[in-house]
Write a structure and sequence with these properties.
It comes from Melia azedarach. The chain is of the alpha/beta class. The chain is 41% helix and 14% strand.
């Protein structure tokens, strides 16, 4: 270990979003635990309680980050101009500090970091924060193997179940929506991926075995996830209970746990749409009344910016049954024995957390890779149900669908099978990260061994 510590020093560079920083910060902790010196490169001002040292580079918007840019496209263009120079200066500074850098682990959304790594003769490892399945779909679009706009009702891709158009990431199904993000996930992140020394993916082999095998033919890909705090998986890192970083502040997390402590085992519905999803006002209302109609206790995270969409008198009408908060420590809630199911937007981090903690899901995907994750949750891993939308003029998930899914999971026949599968996946996630023998643990050890 001492020998590794003297030689190996990784810079870890994340795209500035909660769903990107969390898994990359977690992976950094894994590397540090393996004896590697790690410096986490931040772009915006973040308060971190993690033990990982932080350094800052510029994205060209030093006053307000992404929020200061007029569009995502403008942000990426400016970052692309400023980032390489700023990262190069940091490498030079580190190289003069007695701990020279020998590897850059970088977010796939920032492929210019590989150019910086190669300029200094460093190992370049790209980190994919989405599933193998989502990345395979984007790769097929990138290479013209999947033509857009989509035609037909069934899409067949290697290593994946038959998909309908609505199972595809929103940028693929709804071609032309969010062109800057489409460019990012389809073109930019694959622009030089074949030149990377390592391709790391926040998934685990047993979860996406067939598609992971197919991707192995393209790249030196290694699954190293789920990148969630160690206490919930293998307990290799002592007291590692949270990611150590949050854009949002949980104003009453202790109150959430206290509230859950008073509820029966497996009786509470936990609801959250993550850090980015914007839920339509009408859908928020349908979800609210669906929760009420289910008759179950619920803990609902509604970000402050979204709270105005709650129906009038909803809190009063559900008093004693529900608790609405603006943020909470999700892992603690999912790990609590009172939590019986998770109504989720199906962001990849939330999906992995629910898998790791064996919590059945009601899938309510919004955009991005979420419809694909929902397909896998429901039809491949069979640990949840998708609340079906009413495909009239606007895609809205109705209260009846929400109520049905909650009741079915907590009371119904299918619920028993889903809970059994959820427990199976919980065990498999633990096995993947198990010290010495787990597929992800072995991949991390292989990566570390090749740093020196």
């Amino acid at each position: 270990m001492e020998n590794i510590e003297k030689k190996a020093h990784c810079l870890v560079l994340s795209y500035p979003g909660q769903g990107h920083i969390n898994p990359m910060l977690q992976f950094s902790k894994r590397l540090q635990h393996s004896g590697v010196k790690v410096t986490f490169v931040k772009i915006q001002k973040i308060d971190s309680s993690s033990s990982i040292p932080l350094e800052t580079i510029s994205d060209g918007f030093d006053e307000g980050g992404k929020g200061q840019a007029e569009s995502i496209q403008a942000y990426l263009e400016r970052f692309w101009q400023v980032g390489p120079k700023s990262l190069s200066e940091l490498v030079e500074k580190m190289n003069g500090s007695g701990f020279p850098v020998n590897c850059i682990v970088y977010d796939s959304f920032l492929p210019w970091a590989l150019d910086v790594a190669k300029k200094f003769g460093l190992i370049g490892a790209v980190f994919l924060t989405q599933s193998c399945a989502a990345n395979s779909i984007y790769y097929h679009v990138n290479k013209g193997l999947l033509k857009l706009p989509l035609a037909g009702n069934e899409i067949l891709l290697p290593g994946m179940p038959p998909l309908e158009p609505r199972d595809m990431p929103s940028f693929v199904y709804d071609f032309g929506s969010y062109p800057a993000v489409f460019d990012l996930v389809v073109r930019i992140q694959f622009s030089n991926i074949e030149k990377a020394d390592w391709v790391l993916c926040n998934s685990f082999y047993e979860l996406e075995q067939e598609v992971a095998e197919w991707l192995k033919k393209l790249w030196s890909i290694r699954t190293i996830g789920p990148a969630i705090p160690s206490v919930y998986l293998d307990e290799q890192i002592e007291d590692d209970k949270d990611y150590g970083f949050s854009i949002f502040k949980a104003n009453n997390s202790d109150a959430c746990i206290k509230w859950l402590n008073d509820r029966a085992k497996g009786s509470v519905v936990y609801v959250s749409s993550g850090s980015m999803a914007i839920v339509k006002a009408e859908e928020m209302e349908e979800l609210a009344w669906g929760l009420k109609a289910s008759g179950k206790h619920f803990l609902w995270v509604v970000r402050e910016s979204e709270q105005s969409k709650l129906p009038k008198n909803f809190r009063e009408e559900t008093y004693g049954k529900g608790l609405v908060v603006n943020w909470c420590r999700q892992l603690e809630v999912l790990a609590h024995e009172a939590t019986g199911c998770f109504v989720t937007h199906c962001g990849w981090n939330s999906t992995l957390e629910a898998l790791s903690l064996g919590v059945p899901m009601v899938a309510m995907p919004q955009w991005s890779d979420q419809p694909t994750n929902a397909k896998y949750i429901t039809d491949v891993w069979k640990m949840g149900l998708t609340a079906s939308a009413n495909y009239n003029e606007e895609i809205i998930i109705r209260r009846e669908a929400v109520e049905y899914c909650i009741r079915e999971i907590l009371e119904g026949e299918r619920g028993r099978e889903i809970r059994k599968n959820a427990e199976k996946w919980r065990k498999l996630t633990k096995d993947a990260m198990a010290e010495g023998g787990g597929s992800s643990d072995q991949n991390i050890n292989e990566f570390v061994a090749n740093l020196v």
